[in-house]
Amino acid sequence: MLRTVRQEDLQAFFEHQCDPVATELAAFPSRGREAFDAHWAKILDDPGFWVRTIEVEDGVAGYVCAFPREGRWEIAYWLDRALWDRGIAARAVAEFLTLFPERPVFATVAEHNRPSLRVLEKSGFRFVERYESEGDVAELLMTLERAD
């Protein structure tokens, strides 16, 4: 399900992040083409950034990634809206977490994004705190601790 990102995956990633329904649910604005390309060039050039393409039925379904943020590791993911409600995001995150060794790992999710919250909870993430982000969006900080 997960594989190394290829340059040709970026077109699908760009299209996915332009979906207004997905951006509203994620509470994350889409980027214009130039900003998107610059952002992904930085990601792909950074050896400390973990990112994998989610592949379903030989097509690019989205991505899962981990990156350092504010002194801790955080994961994020994006899935083509046409593939929502099939358990794909939950399986991709679970698989990614078997590859990514760092714990604890955190995730931030918009409070109104219940489907994404369920994805995280299925992988064992637990609530840490609620806060207001830019634009007065209620965000939930979640964490997955090291298994004992």
TrEMBL record:
<feature type="domain" description="N-acetyltransferase">
    <location>
        <begin position="1"/>
        <end position="147"/>
    </location>
</feature>
<protein>
    <submittedName>
        <fullName>GNAT family N-acetyltransferase</fullName>
    </submittedName>
</protein>
<dbReference type="InterPro" id="IPR000182">
    <property type="entry name" value="GNAT_dom"/>
</dbReference>
<dbReference type="Pfam" id="PF13302">
    <property type="entry name" value="Acetyltransf_3"/>
</dbReference>
<dbReference type="InterPro" id="IPR016181">
    <property type="entry name" value="Acyl_CoA_acyltransferase"/>
</dbReference>
<keyword id="KW-0808">Transferase</keyword>
<dbReference type="GO" id="GO:0016747">
    <property type="term" value="F:acyltransferase activity, transferring groups other than amino-acyl groups"/>
</dbReference>
